[in-house]
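ok trying this again, last paste got cut off
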Amino acid sequence: MLRDMHNWTEIRRLVLTEKKSKRAVCREFSLHWQTLEKILQHPEPPGYRQRLPRERPKLDPFLPIIHEILEQDKTAPRKQRHTTKRIFDRLRAEHGYTGGITVVGEVVREWRTTTAEVFLPLSHQPGEAQFDFGEAEVVLQGMPTKVAYCVMSLPYSDAFFVQVFPRECTETFQAGHQRAFEFFGGVPRRISYDNSRIAVARFVGKRGDTPTREFLRLQSHYLFEHHFCLVRRPMEKGHTENLIGFARRNFLVPVPRTGSLEVLNAELERQCCEDLERQLRGQPANKATLLAEEQAALLPLPKSGFEARRVEPAQANSLSLVRFDGNDYSVPTQYAHQKVTAIGGLEEVRLVVNDKLVAQHPRDWSKEQVHYNPLHYLALLERKPGGLDFAKPLENWGLPDCFDLLRRRLEADGGAHGRREFIKTLRLLETISLAALTAAIERALEIDVLAVDAIRLLVQQGLEEPTRWFRLDNHPHLQSHSIPPPNLLSYRELTCALTTGGVL
């Protein structure tokens, strides 16, 4: 290529500058006269130029079919669109095409190039944000687990925040906002979203129109403005869409191994802080400096805290279980068959009846699990003591050994009555701690006093604090008072009279 360009330059110089004859140059370089004319017309080789499109007699009749297939693909799911191979197979099987696959690929590439969407560069003002969720895999407590991670970004400064949650739902949606606002040191004035059912309750045309109640509760607390993008138009929040992939490739590769998602979230927050030191191409300063400038455009954080939670109406069944998010949680048996309000947070599930908290359980993010609190069923067992050995809520309770010894001694002395006494003793756990009752039972076994009333007295005795000396060190207002010594003269006269046999 370089030698050809050298000859091209030399030929033009000899003819146009040195005024050497064209006949001599053609003879010297073995050129046709038409080739020499082309060299003299162009400062550099123009390359191959095809005058007319190459004919494709086998494929041309099928071009409308190919274009129709590609046009229909625009509305199909991205992962279920036609490949060149699939179009080629359909042309042969359904339309009798006898040509090759190469020319089909050329037509597909040409069509996609000429019809590809062109985007307008957008200007982002300080205080605007974008929010979205992505999916990744982590090894949680030794098990491969699919998780959802949220990304909130500020396009003006390119600062972003990433957090991982068990899955995408109302409470994780709210918690992601809450933590991002604290990380940025303020609340964006306007946030763009896709049309997730978590945020949108009703659609008008291709855009979300009515937010959900829980989204409005979040918005009312932080007072930001929302913007829902058009359906299947992620380019309206392309900044966060790109950061979803960036966070996965840079923060979650290799696959993280962790014992807790909160430990992983602390590491992700640290990496987001480190990323603020990065300076983007064309920017005058790093992200941290731009974020400090942008914070003036952010809304202040509310003084009151926000609780990320989901509220759902439910009803306790005949087993005194309430279903929330695919799992069952127990309530005291007195609330069976009643309407219950389930409040699910990131860490716990609270069950409320008539504005009264009746049960609390750790949140289970798996599915189809049952969580019993044995204390919820003790009142029922007192009426049905025969079910003590078969009650599923009491399985694997893990009580200390002294409880089993107390039951054996009570039943040995009183039979069925002893079993009832044992259940009454268990019911003391409804109001006192396991440690306090364990100490009282051990003391009762030691002194051989096994009645439930005696154990209750021993519990109270163990909870009483011994009398302490009253010191005046921290009471300076009492130190100035003096108490006169008692007059013992009368007591002395009495003792003298008693010793001498006198009478007062």
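PB: full thing came through this time. DSSP finds 18 helices and 15 strands in the chain.
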